[in-house]
Specification:
This protein has helices at 7-13, 18-24, 36-46, 61-69, 82-90, 125-135, 153-158, 173-178, 198-206, and strands at 27-28, 51-55, 74-79, 94-97, 110-116, 136-147, 184-189, 192-195, 223-226, 229-234. By secondary structure, the protein is of the alpha/beta class. The chain is globular. Keywords: Methyltransferase, Transferase, Ubiquinone.
């Protein structure tokens, strides 16, 4: 366990939207214009679902997009953070507080489940994946997006830290998924974090709230660091 998935630190990290908003704002698509969320939304729409569950929905941007892009589907969004559920509901999305490890839905109740950048936070990952399997109908689609170990590792190393290795990454995520699902396909994205200035890069590091004493050497102007994202499509 790390600060990434203790219930207390996850609750503190996402009690308000500031940390997440700071981090989301810097991400740019790959050099050839591919964006993980756009590809995830396309994969979901192609499945022509009737009922979609998003777990760990954050401030609700992706769920709102699912509503717009799947007008005939019922979209339900969940998060462990009361504030995020409130923000998601304010976008007109059906939203409720729920922990992925204990989903309040019957078996086989969704055609698609989406987990965008959240499985690395779940204290008991296998229990969370078993819950996804349980609420997904047989033959349903599970879309999971996560970061690789080298995601922002350049920035973290420059600031005196090291790469962030999580329990559900580009490197180890497939192994976890295969314990619960038969089919796993994947797509890789070389994303880019663009910081307008040094202060913005420092704010990004501080938003982790991991207790580390980040010391990023000063730089002039804007700077770009590499990210790595994987989209898993699972059934
Ligand atoms: C990195 S944020 C990503 C949010 C959103 N999916 C996005 O892409 O912007 C992780 C989210 O997962 C939620 N989360 C973490 N652990 C959770 C759990 N066990 N059950 C439900 N949600 C959880 C957090 O509250 C937070 O909203």
């Amino acid at each position: 366990m790390t600060h990434m998935n203790t219930q207390e630190s996850v609750r503190a990290q996402y009690a308000r939207e500031g940390n997440l908003t700071t981090r989301r704002s810097v991400w740019q698509p790959t050099a050839d214009g591919r964006d993980p969320a756009t590809e995830a939304a396309r994969t979901i729409a192609e499945a022509r679902p009737r009922r979609v569950l998003e777990v760990g929905c954050g401030t609700g941007a992706f769920a709102e997009r699912l509503v717009a892009e799947n007008p005939d589907a019922e979209i339900v969004a969940t998060d462990q953070s009361e504030r995020f559920v409130e923000l998601t509901a304010a976008r007109g999305v059906e939203a409720r507080v729920a922990d992925l490890q204990d989903l309040p839905f019957p078996d086989d109740s969704f055609d698609v489940v989406a987990a965008m950048w959240m499985l690395y936070h779940v204290p008991d990952l296998d229990r969370g994946l078993a819950e996804v399997r349980r609420v997904l109908r047989p033959g349903g689609l599970f879309v999971a997006v996560t970061n690789g170990d080298e995601h922002t590792a350049g920035l973290r190393r420059e600031a005196g830290g090291e790469a962030m290795v999580t329990q559900f990454s580009s490197e180890n995520g497939e192994q976890s998924l295969r314990r619960h699902f038969d089919q796993v396909t994947r797509e890789e994205f070389a994303t880019r974090a663009v910081f307008p200035d040094h202060a913005a890069a420092e704010a990004y590091l501080a938003s982790m709230q991991d207790g580390f004493d980040w010391r990023l050497p000063h730089f002039e102007g804007s700077k770009e660091y590499a990210g790595h994202v994987t989209l898993f499509a699972v059934s």
